[in-house]
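**Protein record**
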Amino acid sequence: MTFSHTKTDTPTQSPFHRHMHSDYEILYFVEGDADYVVESAVYRLQRRDLLLIAPRTYHHLRLRSSSRYERFVINFSEAELGGELSPILPGEDCIFNIPKDSFINHFFEAWGQSEGLFDKEELTCLIEQNIRPILLFLKHNPPKESILPIQKNPTLDSILRFIEEHPEKNISAASLSAQFYVSVSWIVHIFHKHLGISLMQYVAKKKMLYAQELIRSGMVPTEVAQHCGFENYATFYRQYKKILNRTPKEDKNTIHI
């Protein structure tokens, strides 16, 4: 588990990276003037919005101005929850606006207030003990009204869902163009404009995170490479290390039971 609390009066000078990873992410928004991109959707963030982002989901912040910005982030794996709580995790991303009197809001307020009092180990204990109650609360007491994106491109959404559902395939702009009846130039343009990343970078990241999940579940790396469409293991190894900054062997040694 990793966590962070960002609070800055100069958000334009802070590094907010476009990324996807193998963990779940809870992002709790306190204040600022920003949109948040989650795959094909763009959300206008409001005070006390909570985003629960599933693994292998591309997401990033879009600042709208230089207003003061504050948010909390927790990253955790499904394995860290324990098998009995894994079913409460959603298969897709969720966004909620948390009531002011909710214990979830009180928890994040307590986190902020405790940073000057608690050491790293104590703060870690506080956060670990509250992840499960937060998820259970969101499952059984979801907000009555859904928070809808301010922008979503249906064609891009279909393309991203296809890539997500077929991580083992070798996908190109040409193959997507033929399948979804859009031009190659449109695909190239929409990926750069909306996601700020090329199609091939996006596909490669999705594929390697999928490969990482297979390896951590116990599948042999050479079999994973073949399953993911690589003709030789050396090419797979190089791309795996470049994108994930670790080797297949390192992930084989962290098998999630």
User: Anything to note?
Assistant: The chain has a mean pLDDT of 90. Residues 120-140 form the longest helix (21 residues).
